[in-house]
Amino acid sequence: QVQLVESGGGLVQPGGSLRLSCAASGRIFRVHDMGWYRQAPGKQRELVAHITAGGTTNYADSVKGRFTISRDDGAKTTTLQMNNLNPEDTADYYCNAGISDTMHFDIYWGQGTQVTVSS
After folding, report:
1. In whole angstroms, how far apart are CA 77 and each of 16, 42, 46, 65?
2. Are 119 and 14 in contact (CB under 8 A)?
3. What angle do CA 51, 60, 71 make, to 5 degrees?
4. Which residues pair with 57 in a beta bridge?
5. Distance separating alpha carbons of residues 46 and 58, to the nearest angstrom
6. With contact defined as beta carbons under 8 Å apart, do 49 and 63 qualify?
7. CA 85, CA 9: separation in Å to the nearest integer?
8. Which residues pair with 30 in a beta bridge?
9. Among positive and negative, which fits the CA dihedral 70, 47, 24, 51?
10. What is the pLDDT of residue 39?
11. Residue 110 above 90 pLDDT?
12. Hey, is 64 helix, strand or coil?
């Protein structure tokens, strides 16, 4: 049984920063692509940032230059450094990862962590 657990969300003022972390645990042979999504109330879930197993990254246009995704394969974690936050970044943020054991591949989601940007 594989779990992804996010942490680091909270309340921050506009212009501030937060760092989100996501840790994978369980029966894991290899972690493939990882990413972060977000969903605000009444809106669709959207991709925020993505990183491949080889370290290639891509970002939503709305966060380019402000957010940075990284990964630590030894720790089986991914992080999202969020700088210069604005109220439009307020949402529940979800970690996503493709994970395989020795036989099967599946895509997993974390439970979500809330980010609120408000003055």
Report:
1. 23, 29, 21, 22
2. yes
3. 20
4. 51
5. 13
6. yes
7. 12
8. 100
9. negative
10. 98
11. yes
12. coil
